[in-house]
Structures are given as C-alpha cells and as structure tokens.
Amino acid sequence: MDYGKQEEILEGEVIDSDYAPRGNGLSIEHEKILKQLEAARSSEERVKVFSVIADDFGVDALLSFIPAIGDAWSFVVSTGYLLVEAFKAGLGSKDISRIIGLQAADFFLGVVPLLGDVGDYFFKANRMSVECFVKNSEALLRKAREAGVPESEILKIHSSAEKWPGVFQRLLKLHKMRKSFLF
Predict the structure, then answer these.
(1) CA distances from 136 to 23, 31, 169 (A)
(2) What is the domain partition of the chain in residue ranges?
(3) Are the C-beta atoms of 120 and 70 separated by less than 8 Å?
(4) Would you say the pTM of this structure is higher than 0.70?
(5) Are 74 and 60 in contact (CB under 8 A)?
C-alpha cells in the first residue's frame, strides 16, 4: 500500500489527497513545491554571498599567492561548499557537473605560475556557479506557477529567502567602492 498517495471519497468522487486542500488551503503537492522553492532560494542567496566574498573581494585570488596549497585549499573549500548547497537546493546532475568543472578549471588555471594569479582575478568560478542556482530557482518558480500555487505563497518564499538582504547589499556596496578606488 502506498501511504504517500491515499485517495479520499467525497460525495461519490475519488480525490487524490496530494491535491486536496489542507487546513492552510494548500495541497500536499503545493507544499512540496514551496519547500523545494524555499530551499533553492535560500541556497541561491547564500551562494551569492559566498561568491561575492570569494571572487569579488578576491579571497580566492589571495589564496592563490600561497603556491599550490592556496589553490588546493580554495578548490576544496569552494567545491565542497557549493556541492553542499547544490544538494540542499536540489540541483540536477548537469548543474553539479558544471559547478565541479568550473571549480576544476579555476584550480588548474591557478596552479600555473604568474598566469594563474592573473587568471584567478579574472576567472570567477564561484560567480559563474551562481548561475546554476539562479536557473534552478527560476525553474522551480515556473513549476510552482504552473501547478497553480497561489502567488501570495510564492511571494512569501521570495521575501523570506533573502534572509541577509542587508548583508548582501552592503557587500555589493563595498565591492563597488573598492572597484572605484582601484580604477
């Protein structure tokens, strides 16, 4: 017996309980989609902050000045963190492969003496990995709308996912200020 999908009989009609309204007005299916969307949006926001710190503030490039060890450390930390967030967000194998490929390219570029230091400044693997998370969130958003999830519930996810909007905005502001002083 499949306990996940039980059917209810109401006034002679068979209703799939996954789509039947619950106490909060949402079906089980809508709740599942909203949980997936919330996890994806939260991971997306955390990865954006991580990429600003690692790539835009140059932590990744600074680590590359420590021969071999710095690049290896950056690869392990970035790849590990991004993979954890990818699994939390429910990214597919194609996106996970892309993230690993970007991080590997960053690592192998970074181990080349001198060229690697310049390459680390311009090749933003973490920033490019953010695109995978954004595409995943957008796909889940479309899925929610196609499934008929109320727009008010979707908007709650968007506003609550930005748990650190102030921190992220301050980081971007600092980054823009830093760039204006350098160029």
Answers:
(1) 29, 18, 22
(2) 7-182
(3) no
(4) yes
(5) yes
